[in-house]
Amino acid sequence: MTEEDGCSSMMEPQFEAGETAADGMISTADSISCRSGQNKTDKVDLESNVELEEDVRDCNLRQEDVVRQELFQNDDEDDDDSGTAYFNLDMAGTRLQRAERIGDASLPDTFQTNELLYYERFKAYQDYMLGDCKTSEVKAFTADYLEKVLEPCDWQAQWCTDVFDVLVEVVDVNYKELKAQVKLVVPLQCETRGCELTEEAMNTLLEATLQKVPLQELRAVFDESGDFDQTALALEHLRFFYKHIWRQWDDEDEDDDFDYFVRCVEPRLRLFYDILEDRVPAGLVAEYYSLLARCSQKFQEFSSLRNGISSDSESELDNVSMVEGLRMYEQMEALKRKLRIMENPLLRYVLGYKVNSGQQSCRAKGPRASGGRMVHVVSVSTTVSQLQGLMADKLGPKFSGEEFEVQFHSEPLLAVSACYEGDVVIILPGHYNVTSSISIPDSISVEGFGLPDEVVIEKKNKGDSFVESTGADVKISNVKFIQHDAIEGILCVRQGKLEMENCVLQCETTGVIVRTSGHLTMNMCDLYGSKGAGVEIYPGSVCSMVGNGIHHCKEGILIKDFADELDTMPKITMVNNVIHNNEGYGVILVKPSDAAAAQGEAAQEDTPSDEQLDKEEGEDWMKGEGKLQVDVPVIVVDDCSVKEPVSYSSCYVVPPEFTEGNDAIKRELVATSAKKQRLQKSRLKELGVTKADDNLLSQEMFVSIQDNQFRRNGMGSFGTFLY
């Protein structure tokens, strides 16, 4: 055996014991051992062995440094889709940008880290900081992460608070407490807001805090060498996590067995960036932050009350406090449940938010003081023949009275904005581009003078919705709407009544939304292209759809039901609609699971189950024996071969497989309405109300569903989604 072979054999056991190191460092250690063997004499003495051990020790130190830096390197060098793509060991210097200060120039610049992309933060939290930890393990995993990547001492940072920014030097880090021991950099370099600070005052403050400050309040000073890039990013991830992801009540989460990243971090991070990128309606954003503030306040009140109760005391005051604590706990759980719904990407768009949130863009003007009415004619340019046709077909027969005046506009938005109650907007053929939402707060009529494909209104810019109706009685006909980048929907009926006839709705994101207290009548319209539901129907609304086509959407029609027993089911009429080629169901009902719906419902012995009652009431209704007996309207059309009017469905034979979904929809909606009624009666009984007003308990849903056709929908004609 040669001396080189002997060196190699001496090295092998040491590296086998440390096989967790990178393969590249093992080959480096082998080359070092071989070079050591070549320089030796024929006899391997004790001194050479000592030198060899020093080489190996240096090699291991370099190896650990590479592994430490690989925490911020891509697993695949060709893949730039990573939040750690800043670091490349082959390139010297920092890969982060400089954040230049605005204001006092005495303080040094810091690293620009607050503009990281979604996938950068996602990868940092998933792969390095949190992994698959439970909620109770978050702090331990975070401390372990910081210990690996944060410089332990001898680096400068700005200590940033609401009152001041001051330059300090970090001398030690307590990873478990998430605090750093610092000392003031002399001479004093600081920027204050609303106060004056001296070097003596800052030293006194640091002495009061035992020279320790939270790591979240530190921002690493910019350094071009790249030695502190990892430290700057680690501080940013920690700061962002505790500001936007972590909740005060997460520590007390009962679901501690589940992956905290999957259950909480990912949906909250996605919501933050959806809000940042204007993908969430403004009303939903306002409601989410309002709920978050209320839940935080309720948690603080609950914690204070709980800490004041003695576990050994049996006094009456403590008993009262316990009852109050239980009440506050239930309120807090209800708020947390609403927050989870909004944080869940699927439920956020399936359920939406239930209130108007003050998003009405303008108030109703009411009638003109003079009592007159205006006809607003919209046209970029027109011909004499078009004007003659307009006079003969529209203006002359319908608006020749003395109370009418005519006004011309070049854009539909200007015409609608100028309307008072009772005005009429007539849009001549043309392609009109609008850049903001069209809000209709007054009772007006908007008519296209021609076929829908000839009168086109297209929205280019982003916004919560395209057309928003809040008027008491609004009519729209013969218009084609083309939607781009609307967050909430192509058309939203927030309140009041909207009648649409012979319109085309070309959606890109969301379709028609009928909010609580809204009333939509939609006849002979064509709707397609929605990435969500073509029509979303909220509790407490009224929706009548006759003779429409709804196709090539994510879902055809989505009917929403909330767990709150005070939310009444919508009143729905669906006749002769063709719902086809949708990715999911033709009609889908979103409702709470049995566990959620049963909250607040008193359990009674010898009482039939909800499923039995729902089934019985649904069957009784279908037989005509239940309370919900309604007259189903039938569309009457003229047939040249029959002198008497006949129903639409008898004009041609429709295969039964295309219409079988009608009865299934009716049964499910009636059963759900019956369950709602029982929940509300139970609630009133708990409140001590023994005799309730019949109108108050009238939860019956006016269901008229007949002759609808369901063709080639991906998941079938009807389905339910439980949350």
From TrEMBL:
Gene Ontology terms: cellular component: spindle
Biased composition (Acidic residues): 603-619
Record localization: Cytoplasm, Cytoskeleton, Spindle
Record bears the keyword Membrane: no
Gene Ontology annotations of biological process type: fibroblast growth factor receptor signaling pathway
Residue span, Right handed beta helix domain: 469-592
Coiled coil: none
Spans annotated as Disordered: 597-619
A Pfam family recorded for this sequence: Beta_helix
Keyword 4Fe-4S: no
Principal subcellular localization: cytoplasm
Keywords from the UniProt entry: Cytoplasm, Cytoskeleton
InterPro entries reported in the protein's UniProt record: Beta_helix, Pectin_lyas_fold, Pectin_lyase_fold/virulence, SHCBP-like_N, SHCBP1-like
Highest rank taxon of the organism: Eukaryota
SHC SH2 domain mapped to chain residues: 120-348
PANTHER family assigned to the protein according to its UniProt record, in alphabetical order: SHC SH2 DOMAIN-BINDING PROTEIN 1, SHC SH2-DOMAIN BINDING PROTEIN 1-RELATED
Designated name of the protein: SHC binding and spindle associated 1
